[in-house]
Amino acid sequence: MKVKRPGTQSCLTSSEVNFINETESRSMAAPGPSLRLIDAIVFIIGIVIGAGIFRTPSVVAANTPDTFWFLVLWVIGGIISLLGAFCYSELSSTFPNAGGDYNFLKLAFGEKFSFLFAWSRITITQTGSIAILAFIAGDYLSQLLPLGVFSSAFYAAVIVITLTLINVLGIKFGVGMQKIMILLQFIGILIIVLAGLFIESSVTMEIPGGHLEISRLSGSSISLALIFVLLTFGGWNEAAYISSELKTGSRNIALGLIISIFIITLIYILINLAFLNVLGLEGVAASEAAGVDMMRATLGEKGVVMIGVLVSLSALTSLNTTIFTGARTNYAFGKDFETIAFLGKWNSEKSAPVNSLLLQGFISILLITFGAFTRNGFESMVEFTAPVFWFFFLSTGLSLFVLRRKKPFVTRPFKVPAYPVTPILFVCFCGYMLYSSLSFTGTGSLMGVALLLIGWLISPLFMSSHQ
To answer: Residue 28 falls within a domain, yes or no?
Structure first.
């Protein structure tokens, strides 16, 4: 079949355009259906349940007035994630594409806006998340086997390089490794929960610096606590990047997201109940590593070694999935712009965007190198990424309304329940979190915003090379 040039397709019906696009996609190397529903669930859980659950409860506890509010915030985090999952499920099942959010934003708001999103993923959010997770794993590995002043950075760099190369080897190898790590991670979490809930503490926990005053209930404290709760829940939206690769069809991405979020919320509540049972709210708030203190109190030093291995494993699990999905945006980015067309090359033999994976790994290594010479890298990277993350989360929520209006006759395998109330609630909350991330974090947030503005300024250079 002879396919018309894009400039002449305006005379065709939408069904004819879709048929031409499908014919083209079959004739070119591109992502194919190679993942089962269980694979999608494994990826979602793997990317969400990372090392954050062992770092963020202290910040949340310090900004909540009592145990009730501490636990309520984790439930709220699950509910908000579920609202967002409904929105992403409609978008992913209706417009399945390896570009995920990039594709939704391009369809809704145009090329320039989607360019800005891809720019942010490459320079801020995705590579920043990779650096954060790698540093967390490096910090814990350094406690087990220190290698000098830059031990954490060295471990972090080696981890990023290794996992990037694993993903370059092919999707099947990556999925298989993910399943093994998830299984080991679940076993470790089960031991922690059982130890915290059923083993009596063998030592008296002392709060550093004496009595710690817990924050009274206020808008600012709850906002800060929610930033870290939702940071811990972050990552479920990455399912959008594998929606086109599901063997069972893109509509099942909704089922995968819903099941995953329920499991994640339950696990988070159980882990926090274990922390509270052993340390109490003040102890959790005062601890720099609640998991370490809890395991030391229940299982002694062998428990400390185990939690160190588990946190490292959790970081590796999330990191492996973050690398996998991040390269998909770069791939879609390269398909649209001639200047960076090398990113849009799909290796059908490896079933992976190899060039995108390599560029992503390189930028992540640069961020790790930068982080090696700074202090409080974890908190600084949260400040750096949060405003940009919530801005595009808000934009993706709005794209649901725009695409319903622009493409009303497109078949939607899954529709958001209680439309438009559900997406309105999600969009309003994203707006609130954007405000909070700018108001209640440090100067790092301004650096992320500044880098986003740079992307906006240079975007005309890429628009002129649009393919």
So the answer is: no
